[in-house]
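The protein record quoted for completeness.
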Amino acid sequence: MNKDSAPEPQSAQGRVLFVGAGPGDPNLLTLAAIDALAEAGTILVDDDQLRELLAHPLVTTDSRVRVSSFGVSEQAPAAPVKARVQAVLEAADSGSDVVRLVAGDPFLDGGVSREAAACAQAGLDIEIVPGISSMTAVPEYAGIALDVGGVQLIRTLGRPGQEPEPERLEHWASHGTLVVHANASQLSAIHEHALASGRTPDEQVLLTFSGGSTQQHSRQVHLKELPRVARTLDPEASVHVIIGAAVAESPREDLDWFERKPLFGWRVLVPRTKDQAGEMVARLEMYGAHAEEVPTISVEPPRTPQQMDKAVRGLVEGSYEWVAFTSVNAVRAVRERLEEYGLDARAFSGLRIAAVGNATANALQNWGIKPDLVPLGEHSAAGLAAEFPAYDDVLDPINRVFLPRADIATEVLVDGLTELGWEVDVVTAYRTVRAAPPPAETREAIKTGKFDAAVFTSSSTVRNLVGIAGKPHNHTVIAAIGPQTAKGCEEHGLRVDVQAPRPGAIELVDALAEFALRRRAELIEEGRPVTKPSETRRRRRAASK
């Protein structure tokens, strides 16, 4: 080919987006980051902690997206730049967008600038999506105002035992505020270099561990104490070290907002699967709790699929006016059945769609379907029935409603729709069976009171949890979504401490947070330390010995 000839066409490659995930709190993902994840064909992460962000309700990804981890650990250190770039190149060959998800900000915290440059040199179209840096976010989560004096940010995070680079530490400022992100094994070296730079041994230092997460905890010491403190810590522990003016002058008693959240640090048992518990978990995290889902049921296909096949034909042939979804599982079951026939969301064209609550509505929207009706009041079968329109033989050409549901569902919605004049096609879309027991560690935590609270959304959930994991300890705070669930708790010997004012996942969590605030006020009034329910139990045991 001569030099004037047109270049040969190259195979299309997708963009590579280096996306900052923020300091760890999913709520600090930027809108650009959420959009990038939603469009990704492949997501590459450094470790499983970043992978967990993808399960958050804020993040929507296609179920077919490939998520790969470089598997960073003590045994398997971070892959070299060349290996990471090769993984990105292979993923980009598919032609879809590749998201390289990194902690904090890609260039400040993630240290991927060389990786991005290598991808660009290889001919890939790169894009940088900045993230909130942990270097500035974590001090603010710890109640430290960085507008006091000058601030110097230094990232020295490395492998355990690896000391900070001397050429970087030699130029530390001797005044103002110093923020260092490091491993606990580096605290002694940080102490030495801080003193060498001219700082005094009595200067105030704040150590913040697991910053921005529900496990965050801070410890204020003097600079001279760092070597002693280091000997008490796991050398692999990541820590933000804040030295100087901001620590001494910030009114942490007023600004320590994060660790003062009503449920901060509470370990809350959520007996539901991740896809069912998304809304509840997000609300718990908003109040500072650490939620742990324990599935109590397992979903299986119906024993006789012919009923579902007939309903799918009815959808296509226009036999229904409404389709009413009462759970995320029902959405999934119908979607899977339609896809087996080569159909998609367009099969619902011309139909009106109802969803029992926000989680179900979100599952529909992820499928490309916007519900016409979501109850404004109670998110339950009764709430949906109360707001469902009556059949009108003039306005409604068809009087049939397709209701895909579980095999053990109640008749509340069916009875309500029938009274409104609708003919309801009840179809068993899936079966629910008791789930397998959780790991032994979780069962032990449930029975010995290591959970601060447990939230129950149905009587069957109570029954199934007790059956597979045992009864929660009597010091665990028990929260029930309504009277029937409370009755189920009491039948299994559980004392109900909290009941939602009206049924709903959000209302239940809000009621638990209000209980925690009242409990805190009572402890303060009595002159007792503010502890979590699980800590109170251990303190009482220690006092009795």
Summary: The two ends are 89 Å apart (CA to CA). Residues 174 and 197 are 5 Å apart (CA to CA).
